[in-house]
Specification:
about 35% helix; alpha+beta; 7-stranded mixed sheet
């Protein structure tokens, strides 16, 4: 055995040092197997090594004292930047590097009380501001409640005369046609109610005064009650009501057709239990029986129609009282008052729609709303047939004895006797 063969036998094939050449061997690299792999035989390599010209040259070494520039490739592209690639950190390592989160701040009782007090102050200021804004928008009628000779003395409690007029003021020709209000000129009363608000804990009382009632109008003689308004306006109407009832009127309010519709629409309609189906083309109304929400136009037709019932005018006064209670109850509900998108349009519509005596302000209107929201006792003046009036035609004749009992109870700030309510 030659010396070369002995050297090959003593060395391990993969120790990395080049093997001494052997006759007939081609070039080989360190670490190559000690025996020749037959060409084309089983175990022969299936690919060719690249030629020397195809092997990329290593990047030049950085000058001494300089940090090597990063030239690695990321996903097949040359990596930007020159800093060396840092290994990715585990989630635990990343979490440990975050600064510790401080303790959660707790609200003290004093802080909460301060915030609540601030909110209440803002709400109070807004309420006071809105109160004075409404008060400034109310339209007052001068002289309505002026004293006159023989006027009844002031009585306990507060008495309101509420009037719905058939004024078309503010309605265009198209709106009059849509609401079926007609083209009547002038101004007459379409409904009249006397509301008594007691000083004590008793419920308020709302009394309908039929507009066709036969009464004595001061300076005019016997006529229908609504004639007092047509002749002398609100002032003569108040004087007539005080004269025939003996009840002192503290406040006066009236509303026309246009304002009526606007108020109902401002609160999103009003829920009414229609006791019988109504079809009245003259009032522009067609309703089915049952509980339903009426729009402003429908509500106007509902309180104006004379269809239904053996006594249409008295059925009409019932619907008017029913509607008035429903609309005030809806307007005073928290869902309307707290929501600025309904309360502000309601305030604007109400102040534009109503006219009051010059002494009535926002505080009085608030008192009226609270009284109507208290489910008042509702009734009508007891009647006893018809009466022929000098001007021609017939009017409703009151039952004098029962009517006096009704009005005396109001003057004395007492509940109306049940037998009077039943008779009415």
């Amino acid at each position: 055995m030659s010396e070369d063969d002995r050297t090959r036998a003593m060395r391990s094939p993969g120790d990395g040092r080049p093997l001494p050449p052997r006759p007939g061997d081609g070039p080989r690299s360190g670490g190559a197997p000690a025996h020749r792999i037959p060409a084309g035989g089983p175990g022969a390599p299936t690919h060719k090594l690249p030629a020397a010209s195809q092997v990329p040259e290593p990047p030049p070494a950085a000058p001494q004292g300089e940090a090597p520039k990063g030239s690695s490739r990321v996903y097949g592209r040359e990596r930007a930047g020159s800093s060396p690639v840092k290994p990715l950190k585990s989630r635990a390592e990343r979490s440990s590097e975050k600064p510790p989160r401080g303790p959660r701040r707790k609200w003290s009782g004093k802080t909460i009380a301060t915030i609540v007090a601030g909110v209440l102050v803002v709400l109070l200021v807004a309420a006071v501001g809105m109160f004075f804004w409404i008060d400034s928008r109310l339209a007052g009628i001068d002289g309505v409640l002026d004293d006159y000779e023989g006027r009844p003395a002031d009585t306990p409690g507060t008495n309101w005369l509420l009037v719905g007029s058939d004024s078309r003021k503010g309605l265009t020709a198209a709106e009059r046609k849509k609401l079926a209000t007609g083209k009547a000129a002038g101004q007459r009363t379409d409904s009249m109610m006397l509301l008594h608000i007691p000083d004590g804990s008793d419920k308020p009382t709302l009394v309908s005064l039929p507009r066709d009632s036969a009464v004595t109008i001061p300076g005019r003689g016997r006529d229908k009650l609504n004639s007092a308004y047509a002749i002398g306006g609100p002032k003569l109407l108040v004087r007539t009501v005080e004269t025939v009832t003996g009840v002192y009127v503290d406040n006066y309010m009236e509303i026309g057709f246009a304002g009526f519709v606007d108020i109902v629409d401002a609160i999103g309609g009003v829920e009414i239990n229609v006791r019988a189906a109504v079809n009245d083309p003259k009032a522009g109304l067609k309703l089915k029986k049952g509980t339903q929400v009426l729009s402003g136009a429908q509500a106007l037709g509902y309180v104006r129609t004379r269809k239904g019932g053996a006594l249409p005018d008295f059925e009409r006064t019932k619907r008017q009282r029913q509607f008035l209670g429903a609309v005030v109850k809806k307007a005073a509900s928290p869902g309307v008052l707290i929501n600025p998108f309904t309360s502000i349009p309601l305030a604007m519509s109400a102040t534009d729609a109503v006219e009051v005596d010059s002494s009535t302000g926002a505080f009085n209107m608030l008192s009226l709303g609270l009284a109507m929201g208290d489910s008042p006792v509702t009734t009508v003046v007891p009647f006893g047939g018809n009466e022929v009036i000098p001007g021609g035609g017939t009017a409703v004749k009151w039952d004098r004895t029962k009517a006096l009992a009704l009005f005396n109870a109001l003057k004395e700030d007492k509940p109306v006797p049940q037998e009077i309510l039943d008779a009415a």
